[in-house]
Specification:
5 strands; 19 helices; globular; Glycosyltransferase; mainly alpha; two-stranded antiparallel sheet; three-stranded antiparallel beta sheet
Length: about 500
């Protein structure tokens, strides 16, 4: 944007310092300031409250099951009402993970954990109505997760045949593909999904402690049961023959199950303050890979999150035996600081955290969330991070997180928001079946498996706006083509939005 222009006189090679020349120098300094600070000036005007509201609303568009009358996205209707009938169990409810119609338990549990952590850390910054909406979103996940562990020594890990589902383009309301139920029964192993389910229920029990003590206690009891299954039968759920064909390659446990055991124990320790979980973390940490160096946090790899979460006990609880977790958390933070000597996380030219493989925004939002959480822990204890010759304080971590969040909301080379419905320019052709197909209200007749292909291949914008959906995002060159077919860039997921809820809540009260 051109702010002003000027044409210096060429009539003389030199001229005295006059008031007009002084004005020119002043204007020049203003121009330099605006250019060098354009990003921060622009960011000050983001409506974080509006973005937070939309970010939470997105989860209503992902709901499966019987929808309440007070739903706000009226283009969504009931779906998956027969889920679980083959096993004589009610598995209705829960969330579709992304733009398809499968209920994958592993990422669903992780999304629920991160939603709960968002409320635990930053709920105080949320407007009261959005705090309530966030709790509703959490409960939609936890009510379903409770159903998945309702049978002793058994956990239901997935509903829906992904191969059949991915061969169709149809609304969840019209699903006619197999709703295959995938489960794991002892002594088969599911430490990853059971451990993540334990983490989700334990974290949610903290989130509901004040508003619904009875529900909170029930969540904690069920979390203990889920963790016992995870710990007693150690191994990955996707190693089981009956599960592998459904879970892989979509949500295989690529990283191993050990981190979920530490993660579940850490959340149970925080929820219950029981010394046995502290002992578990201390005595099993090394065996379960607590010292593994990693700069990733997501549905499959929990190590960076574990280190930040447990660091709270060291920093605020003075549990000095956990110092190694704080050291690991520091090392992770140093990978985000350009001035440090650590090996760095990669950034796009426009400043976005970037990891190859698709759905990049999942890394951006989860890492930004960890930056804010850790910054708060450091701030409350007057601590800093030592990155070699550079000392990094909470304010620096806050700025790092803000840069990522503001990039998502529009401060980027494309000058577009990657959150649907936020700002004047945002993705119109997201990879999402329910959003791209006409709603049941507008098209009451069923749209069968292959009949939806015409909408999938269309260049037209989606029929329904999935407000708050954050897409996978641009490539390593900061370019985004808004192409429904390119699911790696255009598909939203619950685990992109879940940590973003917490980050946006923080910036509602701390916009600068």
């Amino acid at each position: 944007m051109r702010l002003f222009s000027f044409s210096p006189s060429s009539s003389s090679s030199s001229f005295p310092i006059t008031s007009s020349y002084s004005n020119f120098i002043s204007l020049l300094f203003v121009l330099v300031f605006l250019i060098t600070n354009l990003h921060s000036v622009k960011s000050d005007y983001h409506d974080y409250k509006d973005a937070l509201s939309k970010c939470i609303l997105f989860f209503e568009g992902q709901r499966s099951g019987f929808l309440p009358n007070d739903r706000r996205l009226n283009w969504r209707m009931n779906s998956g009402l027969g889920d679980g009938w083959q096993h004589n169990v009610d598995l209705t409810g829960g969330y579709y993970d992304a733009g398809d119609n499968i209920k994958f338990g592993f990422p669903m549990a992780f999304s629920t954990t991160l939603l709960s952590w968002s409320v635990i850390e930053f709920g105080e910054f949320m407007p009261p109505n959005e705090f309530r909406n966030a709790l509703v979103a959490i409960r939609w996940g936890t009510d379903y997760l409770l159903k998945t562990i309702s049978h002793p020594n058994k956990i239901f890990v997935q509903v829906g045949d992904p191969i059949a589902d991915h061969n169709c383009w149809e609304r969840p309301e019209d699903m006619d593909t197999a709703r295959t139920v995938y489960s794991v029964e002892a002594p088969q192993t599911a430490s990853d999904v059971a451990g993540e389910t334990a983490a989700a229920l334990a974290a949610a029990s903290i989130a509901f402690r004040s508003s619904d003590p009875g529900y909170s206690e029930a969540l904690k009891r069920s979390s203990i049961k889920a963790f016992e299954f995870a710990d007693n039968y150690k191994g990955a759920y996707s190693d089981n023959d009956g599960v592998r064909s459904g879970a892989c390659p979509f949500y295989c446990d690529f990283n191993g199950y050990q981190d979920e055991l530490l993660w579940g124990a850490a959340w149970l320790r925080r929820a219950s303050q029981n010394e046995s979980y502290l002992d578990y973390i201390q005595y099993n940490g090394k065996t379960l890979g607590a010292e593994d160096s990693t700069n990733e946090f997501g549905w499959d790899n929990k190590h960076a999150g574990i280190n930040v979460l447990i660091s709270k006990e060291f920093l605020e609880g003075k549990v000095y035996s956990l110092e190694s977790y704080k050291s690991s958390a520091d090392s992770f933070m140093c990978t985000l600081i350009n001035e440090s000597s650590s090996s760095h996380i990669e950034y796009t030219p426009g400043g976005l955290i970037y990891k190859p493989g698709g759905s990049n925004m999942q890394h951006v939002t989860s890492i930004a969330f960890l930056l804010l959480v850790y910054a708060n822990y450091l701030s409350r204890t007057s601590q800093t991070v030592n990155c070699g010759s550079v000392s990094v304080g909470p304010a620096s971590l806050h700025r790092q997180a803000k840069q990522q969040i503001d990039y998502i909301l529009g401060d980027n080379p494309m000058n577009m928001s990657y959150m649907v419905g936020y700002g004047n320019k945002y993705p119109q052709r997201i990879h999402h079946r329910g959003s791209s197909l006409p709603s049941v209200k507008d098209h009451p007749q069923a749209i069968t498996c292959k009949e939806g292909s015409v909408y999938y291949n269309s260049a037209n914008p989606n029929s329904n706006t999935l407000i708050g959906a954050v897409v996978g995002g641009p490539g390593e060159d900061d370019m985004y083509e808004d192409d429904r077919v390119d699911f790696r860039k255009s598909e939203p997921t619950t685990y992109i939005n879940a940590p973003l809820v917490g980050a946006l809540a923080y910036f509602v009260s701390n916009p600068n």
